[in-house]
Amino acid sequence: MQMTFIGLLLPFLGTTFGSATVFFMKNRMNDNVQRALLGFAGGVMIAAGVWSLLIPAMSMSESMGRLAFIPALVGFILGVGFLFLLDTITPHLHAMAENPEGSKTLQGKISRTMMLFFAVTLHNIPEGMAVGVVFASFLNGTSTITAADALALSIGIAIQNFPEGAIISMPLRTEGNGKGKSFLYGTLSGAVEPVAAILTILLTSVILPFLPYLLAFAAGAMVYVVVEELIPEATRDEKTDICTIGFALGFALMMVLDVALG
Question: Is 143 a residue whose pLDDT tops 70?
Fold first, then answer.
């Protein structure tokens, strides 16, 4: 139970610690550090999507024989599609941070501060659901999901949320908001993750028949975030070396957690 509590809290703490960088940095996070963290988080999340989500989803559908891939396939496509739809109605976080005037034009009278908060909050809901689905599967004890799998996924999302929190709080500070207000908005944007995770766990009895689909849905959502947001941001201006090293280390860490501890 204690591990579950820690696992549900980790992604929120990642956002909180990232937002707290506004108190220590004059302008923004060091570019190389940000690229390394984004690449590292991408490696962890890709590995977690395969080993902790897609493979268990197919294992839970073994009774379907050669068609055991169907729940994983359907869930994965729906997860990618959901995040694609979400991105069409909310601007990309890095685009908003780098082009404040453009975001104001797009959203009319809505302040950029509120749009940053709204956008990242929406992006965090599927991540919270992903953590909730994995821990629900682990707590239920009817799948191959282990405590290490669930914790590794939480760590990966928390690492991703660290630079995300900084990307929110630092531009808000630059815009003229106080450090406390900038930190608060960044922190609150991550508060939806444990809430979404807890609600998902509470609905375990309802979602249990659909668990393979939901695991794959979470994998699709995570892969979309990595390909659409993390990697492009970490490799902008064709500076790929640090991101590649970070990605490899993140992938290796997830492999160790999933295989050696699972």
Answer: no
In angstroms, the CA 145 to CA 54 distance is 11
Q: Judge whether residue 107 has pLDDT over 90.
A: no
| pLDDT band per the 50, 70, 90 thresholds, residue 103 | very low
Q: How far apart are CA 190 and CA 185, in angstroms?
A: 9
Helix axis angle for 112-140 and 147-174, nearest 10°, is: 170
Q: Which of 17, 12, 37, 21 lies closest to 172, judged by CA?
A: 21
Per-residue model confidence as pLDDT tens digits over 221-242: 888 888 887 788 788 887 789 9
Q: Are 34 and 166 in contact (CB under 8 A)?
A: yes
72-109 burial, b at 16+ Cβ within 10 Å, e below that, comes to bbbbbebbbeebeebbeebbbbbebbeeeeebeeebee
Q: Give me Rg for the CA atoms of the chain.
A: 18
For residues 185 and 26, the answer to whether their CB atoms sit within 8 Å is no
Amino acid symbol at 165: G
Euclidean distance between CA atoms 39 and 248, whole angstroms = 8
Q: Give mean pLDDT, residues 70-85.
A: 91
Q: Which residue has the tokens 């379907």?
A: 64
What letter would DSSP give residue 203?
A: T
